[in-house]
Amino acid sequence: MENKNSVIVILLVVLIGVVSGVGFLIGINNAVSNALMPMEAKLESIDKKVNNIQKKLNGKNLGKEDGSLASIKQELAAIVNRINGAQRPAQPAQAEEDMNKVYAIDPGISSIIGKKDAPVTIVEFSDFQCPFCARFYPVAKQVLAAYPDQVRMIVKNFPLPFHPNARPAAKLAMAANEQGKFQGMMEALLANGGDVSDAKIKEYAQTLGLDYNKLMADYKNKDAQWEKQIQDDMQLGESVDVRGTPTFYLNGKKTNSRDINSFKAEIDAILAAKK
Asked: What is the pLDDT of residue 96?
């Protein structure tokens, strides 16, 4: 009697395990269906297999040695393999950019670094928390030093949504511009990952020789003005196909130059064409 009861218990455990496994796989199937839409054709066959298993479980006497459990396990394994083999639909390839396209980029009220009437203008769409902006800004600064009378730079704001400090950092740089220290503040922010903590702002102000009280007053009281400028810059960026930061333009054309020699080659060609 005791052995019989043990067999019944074991069979019940097996039944619960199989049913739980099917429920788990059905859950996986639903998750995959949601994540991989549209993939109706592939998932329809998976659903059919799940239904077949459920039919076999209904009223099945698991105590009989009829090989049913082995069959069910094989079908479960097949379902798992199908799920693991499912792939997301291929994404359409982005159209290749026309690097000869000239965009109209209005300087607006953005700060200009360098000679105001220089014949070559670098426009950068930047995010002051972006590590790539921090990495490539020194190259642009080298270019300005190499062409002091021929190249100017305009920085536009393009704070990325996943950089929480980017927007307040842009506003702080604009507030510093009220005291003529936009470039210095921008460089400090880039060097510190866009850190706008109270302690860091005090440090920036001291290093740059800013009136801290005025800086904070302009930073807070002119927030609406700074917000509008950021929005205007971002709308402009979207209209000229900015896809990330930093994005550089030379006289309205996008450039992939990211080192001093590449920038020089393009700038020299522009200057030669103007002669």
From this structure: 79
Tell me if 179 sits within 8 A of 211, measured CB to CB. Answer: yes
For CA atoms 85, 86, 88, 92, the dihedral sign is positive
At residue 15, the pLDDT reads: 42
CB of 135 within 8 A of CB of 96? no
Amino acid letter, residue 175: A
Which pTM does this prediction carry?
Answer: 0.67
Look at residue 71 in the predicted model and tell me its pLDDT: 61
| Residue 170 near residue 157, CB atoms below 8 Å | yes
Q: What angle do the packed helices 166-177 and 198-208 form, to 10 degrees?
A: 30
User: Per residue in 32-71, is it b (16+ CB within 10 Å) or e — as a string?
Assistant: bbeebeebeebbeebeebbeebeebeeeeeeeeeeeebee
Q: What is the mean pLDDT of each run of 10 residues along the chain (275 residues)?
A: 46 44 45 43 54 57 51 60 52 71 95 96 98 97 98 98 97 98 98 98 98 98 98 98 97 97 98 92
Calculate the alpha carbon distances from 18 to 68, 70, 77 in Å: 12, 11, 12
CA-wise closest residue to 30 among 46, 17, 18: 46
Which CA distances in Å does 216 have to 10, 173, 207, 219, 242? 73, 11, 15, 5, 31
- Which residue, 44, 53, 1, 45, is CA-closest to 22? 53
CB of 154 closer than 8 Å to CB of 107: yes
